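Board notes (copied after class):
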Amino acid sequence: MNVMAEPLFTQNYCTLVPYQAGGALVAGRKQGCSVVIVDGELLILSGPDVVDRAPVATVQIDTPAVQRKLGASTFVRMNDHRWTIDFGRTGQLDRPPKRGPIAAMKFARTRNREFTDLLLREGASRPRG
C-alpha cells in the first residue's frame, strides 16, 4: 500500500499560465489549478489531472522583480516548463470572510508568500536576486 504523507501546502483556486523567458505570459493559455507540496514534490493539478510534478529540490523560482513586488504570483521552472502560479483568485474564493478586495489581495499575497517560503525551505532555488 502506497500511503502519501500529509501535504505541507495545498491551495485550490489558483490560476496557471505558462510563461516565456523574461517573464512574458503566454496569451490564451490560462487554466485553473491547485498546487500541492507533499513528499518533497511540487504537484500542479488541474482537476484530477497532474499538469506537472517535480522534486522541490529541482524547482527554480524565477519570479521577475515586478511580480515579486505585486506579491500574488510565483513563477517556477520545473521539468523544462515555465509556469506562473497566480494566487489572486484564492483571495476571492478561498479566504476567511472579510471585507472587500483589499482583504482578498492581502490573503492572496500571504498564501503566495507561504508557498514561496516553503519551496525555498524545502530546497528550491532562486536564480534571481
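Comment from the instructor: The chain has a mean pLDDT of 89. The helical segments are 65-70, 88-93, 100-121.
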